[in-house]
Write a structure and sequence with these properties.
It contains seven helices and six strands; from the N terminus they run E-H-E-H-E-H-E-H-H-E-H-E-H. It is an alpha/beta fold and about 230 residues long. It has a six-stranded parallel β-sheet, with helices on both faces. Helix 1 links the parallel strand 1 and strand 2. Helix 5 packs parallel to helix 6. The longest helix has 27 residues.
């Protein structure tokens, strides 16, 4: 029986690379799609028509997340691995300090997706993950959310939303670890992705396909042992 994974933000970048890696490893993957006109997921689906399900999913919308969980529940009886990868930033707004009139509405948008989005996803998919023997919850975070390592003087929306995500995962761990859940919280490094806007970043040292290799190794580490 195939192991079953759900990945948010799988349209492109790291999410798409994680989906490709799991599919190559024999998994069945439900890939969350936020950009229906973006072609990369469709191309991947043509390679794995029997094991890749494209799932319309906007983690900033509770209705969208509930609908996605309902769709998965109609197609399978459990979820073994839930990867919360979806995230947003705004490169132009991020650099504004308190002396430069930061955009609080934009900060709230980032918080809604980066911090509350994973919480919505876990809540809605929890009944399906409850049915798994593995119960692995994974979260793509960032060093930007570390209060001890931060040296930025701006990036409030992104940094604070990732710090909130880290705290949310801690609270989820406290709640669900006694029920056999296992957790992975991961910083994949600076990648050439679209997270900062409409164009792909080129200054970063790593392509998402490269970053996905150690990320998957970490997410699946000791996967056969439910006590990991």
């Amino acid at each position: 029986m195939d192991s079953i994974a759900v990945i948010t933000g799988a349209d492109r970048g790291l999410g798409r690379a994680l989906a490709a890696g799991l599919l190559a490893g024999g998994w069945r993957v439900f890939a969350g799609q936020y950009l229906p006109d973006w072609p990369e997921l469709a191309a991947l689906a043509s390679q794995y028509p029997d094991r890749l399900d494209i799932l319309p999913l906007d983690v900033s919308s509770s209705a969208s997340v509930r609908g996605a969980a309902q769709t998965v529940g109609q197609r399978c009886d459990r979820v073994d691995l839930l990867i919360n990868n979806a995230g947003v930033n705004n490169s132009q707004a991020a650099h504004k300090t308190l002396r430069q009139q930061p955009d609080y509405d934009e900060m709230q948008r980032l918080y809604n997706t980066n911090a509350l989005g994973p919480l919505r996803v876990v809540e809605s998919f929890l009944p399906l993950v409850d049915c798994s023997d593995q119960k692995r919850l994974c979260f793509v975070s960032s060093e930007a959310g570390s209060t001890t390592r931060s040296q930025r003087d701006a990036w409030y929306g992104y940094c604070m939303s990732k710090a909130a995500l880290n705290m949310g995962v801690r609270n989820l761990f406290n709640l669900l670890r006694p029920d056999g859940y296992t957790f992975r919280l991961y910083h994949p490094g600076w990648m050439r992705t679209y997270i900062g806007g409409e164009s792909k970043g080129t200054r970063a040292p790593t392509e998402p396909e490269q970053a996905a290799i150690p990320a998957l190794a970490h997410f699946l580490e000791d996967y056969a042992d439910p006590a990991a």
